[in-house]
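TICKET: design request
STATUS: open
ATTACHED STRUCTURE:
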C-alpha cells in the first residue's frame, strides 16, 4: 500500500489530478484497483485538508504580517517621538549653554561697570568733601551782603531770607570745584552736583547758637538710591554747616542767637534773637 501511495504521489506531482485515471488503470488486479481508489480518496481528503490548512496558515501569516507591520509602524513612530524628545533636549541644552554664556558675558560687563561705579563713588566722596570745605570757606569770607540776606530789624530780633538763586550764584562765582546747586523748597533742601550725578535731599537743622547743619535723609548716585550708610559716609568727616554769624559778617556787629530756620520754596527764612 505504501508503494501504491508513493506511486500516486509521484504521478500527482508530475501530472496533477489529470493523471488519477491513468494511475487507476495501471492497477494489475482488482485489489490494487480498489486500494488505489481508497488511496485517491484519502489523498483528495488530505489534500483538501492540507489546502485548507495552508489557506488558514496563509491567513494567519497575513494577519501576523499586518500585525508586524503595525508593530513596525508603532516602533518607528515611537522612535521618531524619542528622537524628537532627544532633539528638544539637545535644543534646550544648546539654549541653556547660550544663556549661560550670555550671563557670563553680562556678569563680566556688570562687574566692570560696578568696579567703575565704585571708583567714581570714591572719587565723588572725595570731591564732595572738598565742596563742603569750600562752601564753608566761601561763607567765612563774607561774600553775602545785607541786601542778599533781606534783613528786617526790630528792637529784639532780626528777620531775613536767603534765596537759592543768590546762594547758588555766590557759590558759582567763588568756587573752583564742580558746580553745586542748592534747591530750597517747603521743609526740604536738595543739593545737586550734576557733573557727578549726585543728588541729596534733606533739611537744615539748628546747630549751636548761630548755625544750621544740613541733615540728608535720602540721595541717589547715577539715579541709584543711596543706602543710609553711604549718605553718612559723605558727611562723616565734613558735615555741611552754615554759620549765620559768618554769613552776616560785618553787616551785624551785635551779638545774637539763631532762633528759627524755615525752608520755603526758593529761599531760607530765619529769625535772629538779639542779645542786649
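STATUS: resolved
RESOLUTION: sequence designed for all positions
ATTACHED SEQUENCE:
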Amino acid at each position: 500500500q505504501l508503494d501504491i501511495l508513493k506511486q500516486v504521489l509521484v504521478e500527482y506531482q508530475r501530472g496533477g489530478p489529470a493523471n488519477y485515471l491513468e494511475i487507476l488503470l495501471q492497477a494489475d488486479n482488482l485489489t490494487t484497483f480498489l486500494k488505489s481508489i481508497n488511496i485517491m480518496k484519502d489523498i483528495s481528503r488530505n489534500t483538501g485538508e492540507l489546502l485548507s490548512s495552508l489557506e488558514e496558515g496563509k491567513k494567519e501569516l497575513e494577519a501576523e504580517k499586518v500585525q508586524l507591520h503595525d508593530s513596525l509602524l508603532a516602533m518607528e513612530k515611537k522612535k521618531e517621538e524619542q528622537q524628537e524628545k532627544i532633539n528638544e533636549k539637545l535644543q534646550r541644552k544648546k539654549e541653556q549653554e547660550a544663556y549661560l554664556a550670555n550671563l557670563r558675558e553680562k556678569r563680566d560687563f556688570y562687574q566692570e561697570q560696578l568696579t567703575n561705579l565704585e571708583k567714581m563713588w570714591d572719587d565723588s566722596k572725595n570731591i564732595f568733601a572738598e565742596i563742603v570745605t569750600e562752601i564753608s570757606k566761601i561763607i567765612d569770607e563774607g561774600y553775602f551782603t545785607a541786601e542778599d540776606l533781606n534783613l528786617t530789624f526790630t528792637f529784639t530780633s532780626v528777620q531775613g531770607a536767603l534765596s537759592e538763586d543768590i546762594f547758588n550764584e555766590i557759590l558759582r562765582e567763588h568756587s573752583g570745584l564742580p558746580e553745586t546747586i542748592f534747591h530750597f523748597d517747603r521743609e526740604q533742601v536738595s543739593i545737586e552736583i550734576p557733573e557727578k550725578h549726585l543728588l541729596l535731599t534733606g533739611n537744615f537743622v539748628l546747630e549751636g547758637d548761630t548755625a544750621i547743619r544740613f541733615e540728608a535723609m535720602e540721595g541717589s548716585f547715577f539715579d541709584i538710591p543711596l543706602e543710609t550708610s553711604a549718605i553718612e559716609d559723605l558727611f562723616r568727616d565734613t558735615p555741611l554747616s552754615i554759620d549765620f554769624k559768618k554769613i552776616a559778617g560785618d553787616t551785624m556787629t551785635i551779638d545774637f542767637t539763631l532762633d528759627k530756620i524755615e525752608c520755603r520754596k526758593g529761599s531760607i527764612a530765619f529769625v535772629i534773637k538779639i542779645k542786649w
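CLOSING REMARK: The beta strands are 152-153, 157-163, 181-185, 188-193, 198-207, 211-221, 224-225, 241-243, 256-264, 267-274. Residues 2-69 form one domain.
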